[in-house]
Design a protein that fits this description.
Blueprint: H1 8-24, E1 29-31, E2 40-41, E3 51-54, E4 62-64, E5 77-78, E6 86-94, E7 120-121, E8 124-125, E9 127-130, E10 147-148, E11 159-169, E12 173-181, E13 185-189, E14 192-197, H2 209-215, E15 224-229, E16 232-241, E17 251-258, E18 264-267, E19 269-274, E20 284-286, E21 289-294, E22 298-303, E23 309-314, H3 323-328, H4 330-345, H5 349-366, H6 368-371, H7 377-381, E24 394-395, E25 399-404, E26 408-413, E27 418-423, E28 433-434, E29 436-438, E30 441-445, E31 449-453, E32 459-463, E33 471-472, E34 474-478, E35 481-485, E36 491-492, E37 499-501, E38 518-520, E39 523-528, E40 533-538, E41 550-556, E42 579-581, E43 584-588, E44 593-598, E45 603-609, E46 628-630, E47 633-637, E48 642-646, E49 654-660, E50 682-684, E51 687-691, E52 695-699
Parallel strand pairs: 2-46, 3-49, 28-33
Antiparallel strand pairs: 1-29, 3-18, 4-5, 4-11, 6-9, 6-11, 7-8, 10-17, 11-16, 12-15, 12-17, 13-14, 13-16, 19-52, 20-21, 21-22, 22-23, 24-25, 25-26, 26-27, 29-30, 30-31, 31-32, 34-35, 35-36, 36-37, 38-39, 39-40, 40-41, 42-43, 43-44, 44-45, 46-47, 47-48, 48-49, 50-51, 51-52
């Protein structure tokens, strides 16, 4: 589709004015969202290609249910995200006691089984079935990819069933298997027993449970075993049992993954630094330092050149205690402080988790009213993706300001010296939002907007009329004065929290979207209902205490965008803000599709499903990071380490696909791939920074020799 382009000269002038405006307002307004609130790094020149690839065998495996013949390895299904999908199953076989008789060979010659579809044993037939694929189109209702024998035959108590698959490996090697199973499970590889447990081992069970593990710092105890695969085809047999009492459960969830000691090959990764915890917040650059948040409560300062951690600070209920509160609670110094001191020095992740669980228990014993939190149920269930550290830090160039989802704001100088820490009173916790800084006020949101004195941390005002906000507040200058902008497009005056403008519909109790608007000059681009609506407001002539900006454009997606291939409805949500560049509005939905709308014609000119490999479930979103312009290209990330480099314009040509495939040592049956990146990339000259679940990566050409 041919699209008229805007004037290159006009765009150059616009970019110059935008740059000058940003410099003028640097000391007056500050955002951390997307690094600079616009997602535009037009002067950056980082590499366009990079990668990190494990040299293990997990990514080269293939599998099929049928007994293999010559040449089948080329046709067998690739094992994606460690999931063996194709199986043959047989059963059910009755036993007197499913636990006591678990080792009885109901299937004769268990160790030598090589079944094919349709073969019969004891009047039972081997039948094909599949575990469901990880589906990027299924979000809140996603279940674990169980291989469920009850969907093939009717399962009752005191029964045995079998599942078998053939796994092809181009080379010999070892992979780890992590599994949940509903009751007894025994596993043979090439006739050799490698796992046996006659009782239930169900530790994850659902994706919602990821939040429970993280909130309570629980160990991840799903069983694991090792598969020593031979080059060529391998036989994998699973024996399952049901309970001895009423039950129709006979299922397991299995993931294969490379071992933690796998060797990697890398390109253009200058450094990678392990962080104390994961976070969906964006790193920010302040001079020669990078600041990142880490779950559940740590601010981390790194040297941007080397990746070395310079200092970390805790922002939590204990750290926020005033001297008077500490005096009133002597057990804090006696019992908690020694644990916190140990935590600050501990580097082993499992030991840190144990310490945190002890700290949490001790806090509750000392004063549950002060240290326990009441969480909004939706927030608590989605904690595994949002957490307390979803808010991105913000800086005025001399200090860094942090807002925690616990309801705590803090200010540090660049050397880590605490200036103040304030716990904002709240009745319950819900989704946090990134803070914004303007006119000497730090604006934060937790069920309403609070304005804090940036010098002292004192709460100066509250704005209870703003009750909904997701992702971030923004600071801007509109109508000749600094303002805060909410995710729904409301404008607040920093000095007193006065609500100056509220778009029509902003008070709706329904879900209207997840991402903040974009503000360029006097224009606000406000997305609603994901990628399906865009409202453009001009604030040039606003004044007084009640603003009425002009809505100069409203863009709507074509009806087919909100329809599935079968005609059913789909909400095209986006977790990222739009990118406005060269007369086009670029957006991505959570389902890995790129859109572009032309401002002049108000028409959609790009709708392209992207070759990404994100993971979606109740606590994961395949694409969350905002599209970002770096140099002359648009960067689009999924949450599984893939970044596409796209040429701007209606062709949206993909010129590079980059993958960071770091394998984590999972102890639950979820993909081993490091979750990376929920935060958009940020750029600094010839360097690019990507935030992962475990590591912060610096992408740059290798230094000259």
């Amino acid at each position: 589709m041919k699209t008229p382009s805007s004037s290159r000269f006009a765009m150059a002038v616009w970019c110059l004015l935008l740059s000058l405006t940003a410099q003028t307002l640097a000391q007056e307004i500050a955002n951390g969202w997307r690094g600079n609130a616009t997602g535009i790094w037009a002067d950056a020149q980082p590499p366009l290609t990079w990668g990190r690839r494990p040299l293990g065998i997990a990514d080269s495996l293939r599998s099929q249910s049928q007994r293999p013949a010559a040449g089948d390895e080329a046709k067998a299904a690739i094992v994606e995200k460690g999931l063996l999908r194709d199986w043959l199953v047989i059963g059910p076989f009755e036993v007197p006691d499913s636990e006591r008789d678990f080792d009885v060979a109901v299937l004769k010659d268990e160790s030598s089984a090589q079944p094919n579809e349709g073969e019969t044993i004891n009047e039972k037939t081997w039948k094909p079935t599949q575990s469901p694929a990880d589906d990027p189109m299924v979000f809140g209702t996603a279940e674990l990819p169980w291989l469920d024998l009850n969907k093939v035959f009717s399962v009752a108590k005191k029964q045995i069933g079998y599942a078998h698959t053939y796994v092809y490996s181009p080379a010999s090697g070892k992979v780890r298997a992590v599994v949940d199973h509903s009751y007894g499970l025994k596993v043979w590889l090439n006739g050799r027993e490698i796992y046996r447990q006659p009782k239930r081992e169900m530790h994850l069970g659902s994706y919602q449970a990821l939040s429970r593990y993280e909130l309570n710092h629980l160990p991840e105890p799903s069983p694991e075993f090792e598969l020593d695969l031979q080059a060529g085809w391998n036989r994998l047999l699973f024996k399952l049992s049901s309970f001895n009492f009423d039950s129709n459960e006979m299922r397991f969830c299995l993931r294969l993954m490379d071992r933690a000691d796998v060797v990697y090959e890398s390109q253009n990764i200058r450094w990678m630094t392990e962080l104390p915890g994961r976070s969906t917040s964006t790193p920010i650059l302040v001079g020669d330092r990078i600041f990142v948040f880490a779950e559940p409560d740590e601010l981390v300062c790194l040297d941007k050149f080397s990746g070395r951690i310079l200092w970390t600070r805790f922002i939590n209920y204990v750290a926020a205690l005033s001297p008077a509160e500490r005096t009133a609670l002597p057990a804090v110094a006696e019992r908690l402080d020694p644990l916190v001191t140990r935590l600050a020095k501990e580097t082993n992740r499992r030991e840190r988790a144990t310490l945190r669980a002890t700290i949490q228990k001790t806090q509750s014993e000392i004063d549950p009213g002060k240290f326990n939190f009441a969480a909004d149920g939706h927030f608590e269930a989605h904690f595994g993706i949002v957490g307390f550290t979803m808010p991105t830090p913000v800086s005025d160039g001399r200090h860094v300001y942090v807002w925690s989802g616990m309801g705590i704001a803090a200010c540090f100088d660049l050397n880590g010296q605490q200036q103040w820490m304030t716990r904002v009173p709240t009745d319950h916790l819900s989704y946090g939002s990134s803070p914004a800084l303007a006119d000497g006020i730090l604006a934060v949101f937790l069920n309403k907007v609070y304005g804090l004195d940036a010098r002292t941390g004192e709460v100066k005002w509250e704005q209870p009329r703003v009750q909904r906000n997701v992702a971030s507040l923004l600071a801007a200058r509109l109508g000749g004065q600094p303002v805060f902008i909410t995710q729904r497009g409301e404008a607040l005056r920093p000095r007193d929290g006065k609500l100056l403008f509220r778009p029509q519909g902003a008070t709706s109790a329904g879900d209207m979207g997840w991402a903040p608007p974009v503000i360029l000059g006097e224009t606000m681009y406000l997305a609603r209902y994901g990628v399906t609506e865009m409202h453009v407001f001009d604030f040039t002539d606003v004044s007084g205490d009640t603003w009425q900006p002009k809505e100069i454009a409203t863009l709507h997606s074509p009806p087919e965008v909100s329809r599935k291939p079968d005609g059913g409805w789909i909400d095209r949500w986006t977790a990222g803000s739009a990118l406005i560049w060269d007369g086009l509005i670029y957006e991505t939905d959570i389902y890995q599709t790129l859109y572009a709308y032309e401002l002049s014609s108000r028409k959609m000119v790009v709708r392209q499903d992207l070759p990404l490999h994100g993971l979606t479930h109740y606590n994961a979103v395949a694409v969350a990071a905002s599209p970002t312009l770096i140099g002359k290209h648009i960067f689009v990330c999924d949450n599984q380490g893939t970044t596409l480099v796209v040429e701007p314009g209606p062709a949206a040509k993909i010129i590079a696909k980059n993958c960071i495939q770091t394998v984590l040592e999972r102890k639950l049956p979820i993909p081993a791939q490091e979750t990376l990146a929920y935060a958009p990339p940020i750029a600094d000259g010839n360097r690019l920074y990507l935030r992962g679940e475990r590591f912060l990566y610096c992408i740059a050409q290798p230094p000259p020799q």
